[in-house]
Amino acid sequence: MSESTTAAPDSSERKTSEISEAVIRIAGNSQDGIQAIGGFLARLAGRSEQDVMTFMTIPSTISGGPSIFQVRIGTGEILSSGDEADVLLAFYQHSYENHINFVKKSGIVLYDSDHVEPSEEHQKNYRHVGVAVSSLTVEAIGGSARDKGKNIFALGLITRMFDLNVEKLKKLIAERFKGKPESITTTAHNAFDAGYAQDVGNLVDLYEFEEPDGKLSNQVVMNGNEALAYGLIAAGVRFGAGYPITPWSDIMELLRRELPKYGGTFMQCEDEIASVSMAIGGSWGGRVAVTGSSGPGIALKAEAIGWAIMAEVPLVVVDVQRGGPSTGMPTSVEQSDLNIAVFGGHGDSPRVVIAPAHVEDAFYTAIEAVNIARKYSVPVILLTDQAIATRIEAFAEPNLKELCQDISPDLSAVADHKPYDLDANDGITRHLAPGTRVASGKYPVLTGLEHDEMGHPTSSRELHMDMQTKRRRKLQALRESFPATQVYGPDEGNILVVGWGSSQGPIREAVDRMRGAGESVSAIHIRYLNPLPDKLDEIFSGFHHVVVVELNDEGLNGYGQLAQLLRAKYADPKIQSICKTDGLTWRIGEIVERIHGFEAAQK
Amino acid sequence: MSKLSFGYEALDRTGDLNVGEIPELPEDRPALKKKQIAADHPTWCPGCGDFSVLALYFRLIEKRKIHHEKITTVAGIGCSSRFPYFVQGHGTHFIHGRALPYATGVSLCRPDLHVFVFGGDGDAFSIGGNHFNHTARKNVRLTYVVMDNWVYGLTKKQTSPTSPVGFKSKTDMWGAVDPPINPAKQAIAAGATFVARSTHTNPKHIHEMMDAALDHEGFSFIQCLSECTEFYEGAFDAANPRKGGEFNLVPEDHDVTDQDAAIKLADEVFPGKFGILYKVDEKSKNAKEQEINAKFQAKVEGMEDWEILQQNFNRMK
């Protein structure tokens, strides 16, 4: 907690501190509804014009298992979910023991005294507050439903501690149970009131967030999968197909639920291959369609993606990366699908790969992906990850009226049509949707065989070379349209940190911290992973070291997947790697420490 | 140069387009002639049964007055899957085994089109076997004609999922040992709502089956025996009266809505019976999805797309 002022008006024991931000970690089991508490807090922050970011871990078991939800709320910009917790709320002994080291020195440990026996050792270092959460919840709401409602009780406790807006929270609770019997909301409110009534102020300080500066008004709060799915809808996508796999399933569930309102549909298919094929069919039908998966499913879709590249059909493929290979770590984060996203195909198969940096960016990147797919008639892989997928952020409400697109096909007749016109501008193909009349009576065929300009098969070596060039050239044209890469921090210095995907926030926070300590560090973030933007070498030339920080293995040659791409493009030995695969997002301290280690090794 | 009228950004169409005026065509245009429907010259071997299926597809297009822009032909990989190149109309030659899901995407997005899918037995029942079952059960509105020749032809004589036991191929040089799939029986069991069997040596019959399939509101499947003269000559002689075989129609008293009877009929020893074995009226996938849409769209009637989305965003504040 960043404390700015302290005041103890009414008691020498108790004080209320004004803070700019707080990190609260809630640790329990996955069925305790701790994600719900985190969700309420995040939504409240959004409504209170505060910035917020959450982080959660979910066991990949069918039911149960330890789980955490961490929420960082602040008055200023929040770049990461926080390295250390100001408050730990521990429901069980295992929650207490596994997470207490995550609490900052002299931080607060709020524990359920029905289940947790605090250790003497820890009591010296942290302020402990025991509340009989389980039994008090039962007392408050009655019944025998073990463990039900204690999450809401705990929310009441936290609300009291941080002087949060009771009215807004109770409204959020009511909204959550909208459509359910009234009694459920009443019970939840009772649990909340009981928690709020616990005068933890006797035991610890109370906190109050600084007044927001008003810069964060009109915010929406959602997780990355939601943002991405809504972005696709805004972009005009009305058809998609998929197969269930964590952490992609949320996106397909949302699209299945929402698209019918727009006259669209989303199909759950028999397998990954059917889903990519169906989406490509839908795209040919006239409107860019979407399919998606996580690593293993992307591998299955690879052949069909290759076809779409060959036939030059627009398509958006979402890859919500998780720990791999194989079934790997389905509920953990990794950035190890970069290679399959960029190279996952047979033959020379240039495609576009874009990675959003955070939840808000997932919304806009989805729109961008659809538009690139349409404009360049090419599959675009939207490479997001489990961390963005599951974390909740508040961001400025998009102007939907301006952003929403109509991408319905134009079926008006044409005189003649050559889909694979070698003289076309920048080699860009534009298909006619079936149903379009071609007055000349000559109709095109889409094919995976090498073809002539009408799409008919050819074994001409010249045509193969020309068509291969055409498929490459259009992505080179796309690259020309990329905005210049911006350096976070000064253009020159000792170390340039390169990141991509969900690491943007932690990297920027690490850069801020290091610069604050007088170190010469800057960063760039790469959203376009294929084609890579040009002129990165000009940026590299301003630094002594270029360190690529990514969540994948350093591989047999000592470089992470993006580092390898950059080394291949620029052949610059200055490009080095910092990698990890522990299934968690980067902690700020971790990045700082690893960079210091890297610097020490250079000396 | 015309523009595709996408809301966000007008995209240039490519190619030598719209030179001069495009004359409006009258509603009651004359039917296309074979010459207008034929595209590339088929690459099949002389005597291949697939020629006859192609000729009957042309006749169907002519008789039913399907115009170029509505002709939608999809295929996977295999000899017979070359089909779309030979048809002047919108066509796709997709990857091996996945023509059905691709065609499903087209069918669901474009209720104004009737998609015809052509393929072989390897494409349909081996690599694409799973899709065959699920497209049948979902009752997607499209017609699937499988030209079943009991052998892999394009790759030159390997055992196919319909090769009979004992068939000597390059992968079963001593004769196939695994029992073959019975496509019609499998289709019925999977939930197909229109299942017919025909053979390339009876053009009139193929035409009848395709004609009926075109009118079927749902998934229509035609297993059409189509001889591979190169790698399985004489395979269907027993079904060809000119070769001393028998071509027997489904008995007139067969109830096409009786699933048990249809399975029994499908299971008869080769050559069995030809015609529509099974046909029931069930809601198609397309119709079911349209019902869902109608229900949800009624709730947002009169709203612009962005306003519908705004409702969701308001809940996330």
Could you describe the 3D structure shown?
The complex is a heterodimer of chains A (603) and B (317). Chain A has 603 residues and is α/β, with parallel strands linked by helices. Chain A folds into four domains: 215 residues, Pyruvate-ferredoxin Oxidoreductase, domain 3 (3-Layer(aba) Sandwich), CATH 3.40.920.10; 183 residues, Rossmann fold (3-Layer(aba) Sandwich); 56 residues, no CATH class; 116 residues, Rossmann fold, CATH 3.40.50.920. In chain A, the strands form five sheets. A seven-stranded mixed sheet of chain A has the order 12-11-13-14-16-15-22, with helices on both faces. The relative contact order of chain A is 0.09. About 1% of the residues of chain A have low confidence. Chain B has 317 residues and is of the alpha/beta class. Chain B has two domains: 254 residues, Rossmann fold; 34 residues, no CATH class. Chain B is 32% helix and 16% strand. In chain B, the strands form three sheets. In chain B, strands 4-3-5-6-10-9-12-11 form an eight-stranded mixed sheet, sandwiched between helices. In chain B, helix 6 runs antiparallel to helix 8. The longest helix of chain B has 15 residues. Chain B is globular, with a radius of gyration of 22 Å. The N terminus of chain B is likely disordered. Chains A and B meet through helix 1, strand 10, helix 8, helix 10 and helix 11 of A and strand 1, strand 2, strand 4, helix 3 and helix 5 of B. Strand 18 of chain A pairs parallel with strand 4 of chain B, so a sheet runs across the interface.
The low-confidence runs of chain B, each spanning 5 or more residues with pLDDT under 50, are: 1-10
Strand order of the largest sheet of chain A: 12-11-13-14-16-15-22
Oligomer: heterodimer
Write down the CATH class of the largest domain in chain A: Alpha Beta
Q: What is the molecular shape of chain A?
A: globular
Largest interface, counted with CB-CB under 8 A?
Answer: A-B, 95 and 78 residues
